[in-house]
Design brief:
The complex is a heterodimer of chains A (about 300) and B (about 300). Helix content of chain A is about 15%, strand content about 30%. Chain A has about 300 residues and is an alpha/beta fold. Chain A folds into 2 domains: about 100 residues, Elongation Factor Tu (Ef-tu), domain 3 (Beta Barrel), CATH 2.40.30; about 120 residues, 3-Layer(aba) Sandwich (Rossmann fold), CATH 3.40.50.80. In chain A, the strands form 3 sheets. Chain A has a 7-stranded antiparallel β-sheet with strand order 4-3-7-1-2-6-5. In chain A, strands 10-9-8-11-12-15 form a 6-stranded mixed β-sheet, sandwiched between helices. The longest helix of chain A is centred in the C-terminal third of the chain and has 11 residues. Chain B has about 300 residues and is an alpha/beta fold. Helices cover about 30% and strands about 20% of the residues of chain B. In chain B, helix 5 packs across helix 6. The longest helix of chain B has 16 residues. The interface between A and B is large, with 37 and 43 residues.
Chain lengths: ~300, ~300
Amino acid sequence: MSEPHTSPPPGTQAPSGSGPLRLQAEVLESERVAANHRRLLLRAPQIVTTAQPGQFLHIWCHPPEEIDRPPSAALLRRPYSISRLRPPDGVEILLRVRGNGGRLLAAKAAGESLDIIGPLGHGFRISPGLSLAVIVAGGIGLAPVSFLVERLGGLGVRVILLAGAETDEKIPFRVERPQAGGATLPEMEALGAEVTFVSESVEGVRITEVVQARLDELPGEGAAMFAVGPRAMLKRLAEIARGGLPLQVSLEERMACGLGACRSCVVPARSADGASYKTVCRDGPVFDASEIDWERLTP
Amino acid sequence: MTKPDLGVTIGSMAMKNPVMIASGIFGYGDEFAGLADYGELGALVLKTITREPRQGNPPAHRTVETPAGMVNAIGLENVGLDAFLRDKLPAALAHGTNVVASIAGDTPEGFAECARSLDGTDVAAIEINISCPNVKKGGMAFGVDAEASAEVTAAVRAATKKPIIPKLTPNVTDIASVAQACERAGADAISLTNTFSAMVIDVEGRRPLLAAGTGGLSGPAIRPAAVYRVHQVAQAVEVPVVGMGGIWNANDALEFIIAGASAVAVGTALYADPAAGNRIVAGIREYLQRHGIRQVSDLVGSIQL
């Protein structure tokens, strides 16, 4: 059953599943995937059946049985994109071993449990006529991309992934540089994506430059762009895509409730009076680029 | 032993237990739906409304986590009175327990207009937000001054028969005198504390982390300071006191009750545990049973000095 907060445009997949659930998810695996990044595999069958790419989990970083005791650090839950589904019951997240929450989660071992609320927010909308998806991801923005690539691939959509970072260490995946053809991400290729990766420190280019250079080779119809990453990258893509490719962006902001109640994580939305806000946690995190007031969006 | 009686009364508002949800935490009651049985709680205080909708403070950031707390500067973003009555209140009432509306305004008459419109609704009580520290015009200006607090309370008193509960800011020199002024002006109860004025600085950028510059600190970090103020106010007024500030578990709630609060409100804890209020109700019941106390009201202000 699908019960989105707002009706999706006709003919599109519902971007959200049924309402958020709260559950205890056992950590099945914890693995270092790259410098300073870990992958957690959680047992959460209820999430597997309802989650859409782009949605997130709101995670209590301490032991579930200690929810009665206020911690001094990581008092609030932390939002993590659903990175990949492992049916029938596995859900993956990717995390940076950084900050109070990230360090606590990185220390979780198999057999421990997490108190999670999810799936939350509105994910990527995939229109039925889509034949080519260009996914642009920067840095830790790669976290939700596997899920999206798999979903698109399952629908028969061709996927081009253009990913970038300041350095190889800033992404949660292994980078390979074969003799010819530049850098790639083998795990994303294994999922069926045509991958280009650029590191500013090695290749010396930004991913937005790669996107601009390759725009001409894209067909006029049936293509759409999906972007996750730093705001400066998203802003540049909104300029590049304006008037041409449909663009959806996934935004981040500091959250408290994760449910749309506290109004902490708002971003400026386009409106007639130029003064309205939308919540990243509930209206987003995925927005159509046209919904966002890019002029007022702070870096 | 028979089950202890958790019921308390705030003005004419009878509550099945003393645990409320604090204003601003819960939105208008629909966002948390399904994550706990909120109908089990004594009362739900909704997000503050003003007569006209407000956009609130600019984003990035409106909230910053701090040790055992968080600092927020939302700026009273709200849908306005009309949309509240039309779109939000019915869903809140559907939780099946007392709903308390929280109101604010730029002038005493602004508060009174909200109260007048709420008078004919099914809200059980009205909390008067004279203490929100985030709006430059309004909130703070009333709550820091006993006379201005009384003026707002009197204006609201004249506009409604519902129980009215001014919510005090802790950012004053003598909170008991503000409470007494509100009581004289017709308050049925006093709630406290709102957040403590606070600032967080990004040392790399040498700028405040909150876009508004300053905000209000909530969470366990403020609890002992809030307990003390509740104790001070409870000794100074006759009307019931609703205590809040960093309550995370039943033990915390009991501190406030023993200090003199007839009821308590849970705020920041709900962000970690949407069922924090329900957990606290169960914990208070367990405490009363363990101590052979028949009713929670026997515990109110029972501190031995």
